[in-house]
Task: structure prediction
Amino acid sequence: MKWLELLSVAGATLIAAMTVVVLYALGVRLTAIAGDIRNSPASWTRPLAYACFAVCGAAVLFGLYLIVPYFHK
Amino acid sequence: MVALVISLALFFDFTNGFHDTANAMATPIATGAIKPKTAVALAAVLNLVGAFLSTEVAKTVSGGIIKEGADGVQITPDIIFAGLMGAILWNMITWLKGLPSSSSHALFGGLIGAAIAGIGIHSINFESLLQKVILPAIFAPIIAGAVAYLCTRLAYALTSRHDPETGDKLTQKRGGFRTGQIFTSSLVALAHGTNDAQKTMGIITLVLISAGTQPAGSGPQLWVIACCAFAIAIGTYSGGWRIIRTMGSGLTEVKPAQGFAAESSTASAILASSHLGFALSTTQVASGSVIGSGMGRRGTTVRWGTAGRIAIGWLFTLPAAGIVGALTAMLVQTGVIGVIMAAVAGTAAVAYMFVHSRKSHVGHHNAVQIEEVGQAVQFRKKKSAARAIKDSAAAIKNGGAKR
Result:
């Protein structure tokens, strides 16, 4: 039985999904903060939100890299 | 016979496509991230592209579950024909019932049944069966469900915002998750195209090799690649709306943050499983993710009755497809008349199910009631708003405790 492979798949899934979700959620939160009207938000919130989304975009590109066999032969 | 098997394989590819559209596109459709028709079109294009990207053909039809090869048994086109018949019929039945079930497990089931009836029980490698079908079927939904549950909790905890003084809810912009959903679900669709179209290409190529029209060990010919790619894309575009309905709204109510968490878990699990050597079924991963994300958001209920029906469907996948495969194999052994009878009976069954499905039509227009429709109802909006406030209050309490 390939228990080790099973564990590594479970671990990789957990880490990858959590990373993407945490970053994206931070991005969403920062966007919401940056969009506040009542208390004027700090100027760094919006760029930071975009940075979070950009890292998520990189994660998607890495996913593409994994899917397309041409890249890792 | 070769032509018959090829056409059947292409039809299997088609059913595979429309059966699995839901895996990628059910949650974005349910949250309104992508319009239903656009979603299936996007999935179809990605499946088409994916099929052309990956054309490395497997060495064996069954991936080692049947003892194939030099020192094992010879899989004839007859057995492949019978196996495909079992898989197609099971795919059609589960589609009619709106149950997401693994197309590859259906194919394995059909092949196993056909091999037992046609060759004998010694042709089956039971250890490989346990490792490649039964254990993944147990662990795929557990892994995906647990990850999706955690991700959903995190997504909600991280985005809940309150005014520190008054305790009022501030804007949370959770609709922003919709954009993310487009990307994660596209990844799932592309991965599906590269994996599943390849299976059919492998079958057709192996049949061509065994028929002697193609040298052994060569890759699929261009027309085979193109046919498989288009079969799966057309299947995807025709959209298994019944299964989309089950996955998108039958199991649990899906909100954007939840859908994003579920899709990310599905995409991660599929990519991890295909690169770290423990194959998991896309359908089972996706179903598990949806259930997990439903458990992760407070105020939603998971309809365990539906989940139970799906689980029973998975239990029956192998034996049911196997029985059809075995019956077909026995018919085919009787000669040409048997083959014709099997082909006619199979076509009739598929046609009957299609006609039956027309009685209660499920299409892109009524597959999933999108959020806006729900929110138009006044009392429901208030209730969910109250619930949301309670949720985020609890989430903040939790967050505070963690910090």
